[in-house]
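Follow-up to my earlier ticket, as requested here are the two runs.
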Amino acid sequence: MDNLRKIANIYYHALPEEDKLKVSHFMTTMDKDGSGKADLVEFKQYLKEQGYDNYADSDFFKKLDINRDKRLDTMEMLTLYYSILSGRPFCRRCGDFIMAEYFVCVECFEKCSAPIYLCSRCYKDRKYRHSHGINETPLFLDNYAMLEYNRVSALTKKKRRKLQKSESKASFTITTFSTSSSLVSSSKASSNITSELKEVGAVAFKTFETALGLANLKLRLTALGIGAGCTIM
């Protein structure tokens, strides 16, 4: 939890004043008796009122309460605020709050409002069953690998859009200049088309190369045993 406190503190000091006011509002609203701290009752009541039921957990409160005085001080409430806004998850299998690395089902992450997150212990010990189909083994990635996966996927989509745009432009150029009676214009168009097609070819190859890299990544991870099969249990 110390690491989360440090991160929360760093983010807080980088916030503009108007956002710091939002943090203060979060704390004062939770602290219903105005004592400057939030006890377990205030903690649970506020989080349930705000729709954060999964965070309204006694064990999570104890983890936040670093000094063990059974109340959350300003720094501890700031850590809670950061944990909620950053979407820090709970393990779907054991229910523990995940303070560090976690594993997430890629398909759930991309398509579901409530992705399947697992702590390192439950993932390592295979204390779960999860699938999206009879013959499908879901791909699980840790949070760092998931970030890289999303980065590469975004770049691939961007290159694909550029490829489509280049193909459309090249097609339009061919149609326009094929109807022209000017030999000079046709020659110039041919030069433009050649240049465009070279660019299209380069982008197409790079897109294929990136996609192949992602496919190889998935194959390597599957070979290492990443994923398992049929609803979290």
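Run two:
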Amino acid sequence: MIFTLQIFHHQVWQDAASLAVDLETRQVSLEYLDGYKVAYLFENLETACSVNYPVEIFQTYRRQGWFGFIDDILPSGSSRRYWLQKLGIAELSVWQQDLQLLQEAVIAPVGNLRIKEAVPEKFEDSLQQKRFSIQEVISLNIDFLEYAQEMGAVSGGATGAGGEAPKLLVRQSDDQQIWIDTYQDDLDNLDQHYLVKFPRGRGALRDRQILQAEYAYLQELHRLQMNAIDISKTRLEIEGEAMSLWLPRFDVCYQSGKVEHFALESVFSILEKPAGSVLNHFDVIDGVCDKLRNAQTFDSEAFVREWVKRDFLNVIFANSDNHGRNSALIKKHGHIELSPIYDFAPMRADLEQIVRTIKWGRPYEAGGEFDWQGIVDQLNELTDTERLWQEMRQLASQLLGLKQRLVEYGVDEDFLEIPVLGMNTIDARLQRWQLL
């Protein structure tokens, strides 16, 4: 079985590589197409499928099972469940499911990579012109759901956004009309791209509180001047008990009157680790820096400082969902760096009891306690540890009064009293960790 990988670059979707799958041995081969090889020879950033597989002439990449970048674009979480039901393949093996999903569901994921065979035939009919109000999307109006299903985008397909919380990828016009861009072929249309996120699970009170807190967290990240999703275009929509968080996509920009899609690659993919892997932070830092040591535009010292500060914030904000797909690097204009922070929410409060899967390891992290000074010192060969420690202390000082600010942002006070969130112990912990 052969798939064609398309990469968006120079304002067009280009046939870039073939992905050959041996159905019996499950060996997967990747080879760039001849014309593409000539145009982008030796490149390994946004014009390549992965930083691990640069464009080469006499090179066929092979591995047992999927390449990491394929795992990045396959539907996961609620998106995968939707597609398994839609295609009637829930009873198949995971491998067989993946093959079907590549054929049918990898239509328009985030980033600049897609499967050509999954993009449906385009019909110039009334469906292409349909538009919906924001309220119809918020309430998941039946007409909108039928339209989204036709466009291949109910929690999947044109959502392409993985994860447990149901999500949709939509466009919004200047007059507040919503539509789904299955084909992504009208580069002159500058309607805003949004990822619309709904509460996890069945939308119970706790699920809604977590989503509401995520919106507040983004406001606080903006106050802290962290690299996060643009808060000026972010909004929380509430209609009765229906709630959705509208996040402007950072993998899309509008330059010179044209749409541009940027490449994203998860930490799992860069490190070639399977989904669900439990990792050590020091190994992640070493691994990413090693993989990108020859990328002249990669600032490894800045990456290390940012990575440590982001995990510190994960701890303070009780975001335990820190797996390797919730951190990614963005590749654009020949540069690669950590993407803006996303999926940043108080997941320790989730009733499914989500635990951290990337840890510092003992003696640096144990039982909820951290030796941040020791962590920083351990990174002395990779970054200026004195500068990092000062930045950590400055960040810590800005966190004083966090709980009250979250209330002012609209978070329920009762929710913030949940003990596992630790909102009442922030000052004490910062002092204990010698950050104040």
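The only thing I checked on run two: The first strand starts at residue 2 and ends at 9. Let me know what else you need.
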